[in-house]
Structure formats: C-alpha cells, structure tokens
Amino acid sequence: MDTPERTMESEANEPRPVDPPPEGANQDEALTSSEKRLLLGLAVAGAVILLVVVLVNFVGGGSSDDSSPSADSAPSGQPDPKAFTGDGAIAATPSQLAPAATPVVDDLDRDTLKGGPLSWSVVGEGDWQPDNGELVTDTEPVGASPMAVVVMPAKFGEDWRFSIVVEKPSDNAGLVFGVEDAENYWELTFNSTYAAAAVNHVRDGESKGVQVIGPTEFGRGVSWQVQHEGDTVTLASEGEPFFAVSDPSLEESRKVGVIATSGAPATFSSPQIAALEGS
Question: How far is Cα 209 from Cα 16, in angstroms, rounded to an integer?
Fold first, then answer.
C-alpha cells in the first residue's frame, strides 16, 4: 500500500501540461531567444535564395535548359542565346556558316555613301556617310535611328551573306535585315548597360521582341554576319553562328545593313557581301 508521502512524490515527478497562452497574448513571448534567432536566420536565408534566383533569371534569360551554353562557355564578345522568345519562329542554329564565294568588299574610301562597289541607301530619318574608311552615322536629328542598307544584287540569287566590323560601338546600334522600309524590318541591337542584345521584329513601326541574348557586347573590332537562305536568316559573330530565325517576311527581302541612333553615333568598317556557294 502506497503511503501518502510516496503518492505525493509520484505526482511531483509526473510531467505537467503547459497551459496555452491566453488569447490575444504576444506569441513572441512564448519563444526563447534561441528560437527567435533561428527563425530570423531562416527568413534571411530565404530572402537571399530568392534574390539569387531573380538575378540568375534576369541575367541568364530564365532558361534552365541544360543544352543552352553557359556564359562561361560563350566565346568572348559573342552572344550566348537564352530563351526569351516572343515574336517570330526561332530556327535551329547551324553549327557553321555556309561556304561562300569570293566577297565584294567596300573600303569606304570616298566622300559619299554612293559610288562604291555596293548598292547603299539610307532608310529612315538621319544620314550615314563614309569618313576615313569608316561608315559613320550623323549626329542630327537627335533621337533618329537611320539605317544604312545594302541591296543584294540579283546575280547573288536567294542565298547570300553580309558582313561588317564594329569600330565604335554604341547603345541601340546593331544590324538590320529583312528591311522593307523605315517601319518594317528586323534588327539585332545592343545595350551595354545590361550586357545584352535583342532581336526585334518591327512591323508598321511597332517593335515586338523575338529573343534577348546575353551576356554579350558589341565589341570593338568584332565582325558580324547576316546569312540569308530562303526565309531563314542566321546571325553570326566572327563567323560563329549564334541565332537563326525563319519568317515569310524574310524570303523576298534583299536589304541588309546597320542601324544606330543619331546623337550616339556608331561607326563600322569593312562591309562586304558574298553569294553562298551553289546559289
């Protein structure tokens, strides 16, 4: 038989339930200082992870496709395609450019745009002129975006290539192709602030994004190519293809060239054109 003393001792050793805090009481008071530090650490870690994910998606285009080349694998000065697709039918990028015939090169050694071996014209408000062997956009009117385009000769057939070298890069400068007029064309333009390039399709004066490419730069001394085959255009840097697009509007077009914003002039050199072999 248990004595009263043993019964009291047993009851004292049994765990007692903890009463919940009264309704409306401060729940933080129920947390120890260690628990508070743990929760704060978890919150900070979550915020850091979220920030890293946002930055990776912004810079890398949000692509998690393992088949996409990384920024580290992209050659210096060349675009690294990432998936930011919108308008246009993005085509498979060829591993190399097609063989071409002997190119026709314009040394720009003259005072006016016309009169050389290539059929140049200016599209849009503003102007372009040769200057000491370089193609230079005018500084007036400020905010205009004139294009200097070459018309491919009929003898080149349907398949041809245009190439040009950047001498002085500038934001919003780049290449144009599929040019119909000042309101309808395709462009590859660059932005140094974001270390990125954008392929856009301008229709009736309204620009629609096709793809953002980056990180990349419109590097000084780098040559860029536009290769046309049927309704497909392939873009390349230093002869290395990095992007291709197919669209019916490209099939009949024979105008290709460069674009820049007046007031932030860009300069180019060594423009040349060539027919692809077998065309």
Answer: 67
Q: Which two tokens stand for residue 178?
A: 């599929």
Residue 203 exposure: Cα atoms within 13 Å on the Cβ side: 9
**The pair of three-digit structure tokens given for residue 13, joined into one six-digit string:** 């050793």
Of the candidates 278, 276, 279, 264, the residue with the CA atom closest to the CA atom of residue 98: 276
- Residues of the chain with confidence (pLDDT) below 50: 4-12, 15, 18, 24-29, 34, 38, 44-45, 48-86
194, 217 in Cβ contact below 8 A? Answer: no
Residues 269 and 167: their CA atoms lie apart, in Å, by 7
**Listed residue (148, 149, 153, 151) closest to 101, CA to CA:** 153
Phi-psi region of 230 (alpha: psi -120 to 50; beta: other; left: phi over 0): left
pTM of the model: 0.70
